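re: ur msg from earlier - yeah i can do the adenosine-5'-diphosphate complex, just paste it... oh wait u already did. ok heres what im feeding in:
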Amino acid sequence: MTWHGKLLTGMALNKHNIKKKPGKYRKQLEQTAIAGDITEQKHTKKKSAKHCEQLEEMLKERTRQLREADENLKIEVDIRKKAEKKLKDYRKQIRSLTSQMSLIEENEKRRIAAELHDCIGQPLALSKIKIGFLNKLKHSDETGKIIKEILCLIEEAIKETRTLTFELSPPILYESGLVPAVKWLIDQFRYRHGLNIILIDDGQDKPFDNNMRFFLFQAIRELLVNIAKHAQASKATIKMAGKNSKLHITIEDDGIGFSGPAVNCTGYGLFNIRERMNHINGVFEIRSRPGKGTRAALLVPFKLDKKLYKKELP
Ligand SMILES: Nc1ncnc2c1ncn2[C@@H]1O[C@H](COP(=O)(O)OP(=O)(O)O)[C@@H](O)[C@H]1O
Ligand SMILES: [Mg+2]
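and the outut:
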């Protein structure tokens, strides 16, 4: 474009350029330049106003989107909170049910044990006495032989009934307490599974009621069954000590151990212990490493929360 052309459009003219042009055009040039400046300013203003409008529109749209996202988030948080509450309630229910199931199971076992003792154990004991009398009467050698055989069979049945009664619900647990019952349990495991178990007890009183005694006895039995069933251990140690208003029970073995969280396995044993312990505000921990044995710990408050505990007694 020529300088005249530029002049007409008012483009790219500065004072330096204008000063260089011939005198008769200077004024016209200056006026055109000012007019050009104004046009350009107007154009820029218009452009920036449009740009501003566009920005405002974009801002409005973005704000709307953010508001919508915020609303959706609020709804999602609400749904999540409700789901979490439901889950919490379900867990509470499971704990309570597990607890109640254990108590129902215990009562049922005690009932069957009592029936076994009264309805089978007693008549068997009486039969043994009567057959003993019969044996003292005059009889042939042949009869004597049969009487002896019957006596042996009755003896066996009495022994089995007693073992079954004890296994269902050891009277020693209710008559003498948790520690004597655990000692009896240890003898059973030594006799039946050849498991060498050492008990280290602090010798102090463990003031629990029958339900709690039964639960702890059942938990210790489950942990010992696990050792016999899974651990391939040569030795196990049970420690029982009262500390800071809590009973600490630890059961350790030197077996093969396991990896990962056993509590999440499909087995019911550890799950049952954990749920019940949670329900009474106790603690249950189990730690293990392959080849390094297993250590289970139970922490039970001596004073149990009545709201959690007593209300569910049958
Ligand atoms: N003392 C232990 N030694 C090795 N493995 C164990 C021991 N205790 C538990 N486990 C592992 O944890 C799992 C879960 O145990 P549990 O809940 O009692 O169920 P179950 O005994 O019916 O399998 C067991 O299957 C076993 O693999
Ligand atoms: Mg088990």
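cool cool. The longest strand covers residues 235-243. ping me if u need the other ligands too
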